[in-house]
Amino acid sequence: MTPTVSASGLSLRYGGTRALDDVSLRLSTGVTGLLGPNGAGKTTLLRVLATAVPADRGAFTVLGHDPGTSRGRQELRRNLGYLPQTPGFHPDFTACEFVDYVAILKEHTDRAARHREVRRVLDEAGLGDVRGRRIRKLSGGMRQRVALAAALVGDPAFLVLDEPTVGLDPEQRMRFRELIARAGEGRTVLLSTHQTEDVAMLCHRVVVLAEGTVRFDGTPAELTARAAERVWSSAERDPGAKAGWRTGLGTFRNVGDPPAGADLLEPTLEDGYLLTLDGADTEVTA
């Protein structure tokens, strides 16, 4: 299968900080999760792929378009939907006015066709009934839907989502997952998140980034398998565990190298993620 996105050797520094270090990846149709701790370089990678900031070294293409050329960058942006970590809403805009404004920026110049497209994406995001409501009066979940609707304008082949479920309550997160899952049908979605459950429920593939480098690239099942026979239960926190926390049952769940005879537990994707970050400040205590 020809990848939608092909990146090789992407590197970027901010002063003395190494944000990306020789990052290579290939993305195809479906939802790929991007996991990593704070400061891992996730947002920087998304900004590079969204052509918001250029890399110092390396190259990438989206649908064969090279952003290193003016024409390639223009074509790439026409096929791109980007939901940044902090969408720049104007609070006095209605949901419809904001998405219409984004459609104008995306060069949808025919007024009638543009308004049909705005209504389509608002309906797709479940906002048809509130399209005339001002953004400042919408809940956090509704505002994130407005931002997603704006990203979907023009039916982009590549959708970049930076922490779209942060700050949402469980019901809002569930509804937003439904939208992301539908968006991933027939297009390529790169989803940056701290929520391992989002990845487990939505993604066919996961990339783990830490200190600007790719630590893992594979399926969620393969990431979970990294913790096989390395998760155990105990009455007290095991001091030899790489991570450990008290559960609701009052026992401790430990991750690392179990002692002989330990009561082994089924691993989760989060367990595999923590072990992948071993050595990158991942100790968890409670």
Automatic annotation (TrEMBL):
This is ABC transporter ATP-binding protein. SUPFAM superfamilies: P-loop containing nucleoside triphosphate hydrolases. Gene3D superfamilies: P-loop containing nucleotide triphosphate hydrolases. Belongs to the ABC transporter superfamily. It comes from the Bacteria. GO terms for molecular function: ATP binding; ATP hydrolysis activity. Keywords: ATP-binding, Nucleotide-binding, Transport. Residues 5-236 form the ABC transporter domain. Signal peptide: none annotated. The keyword Transport applies.
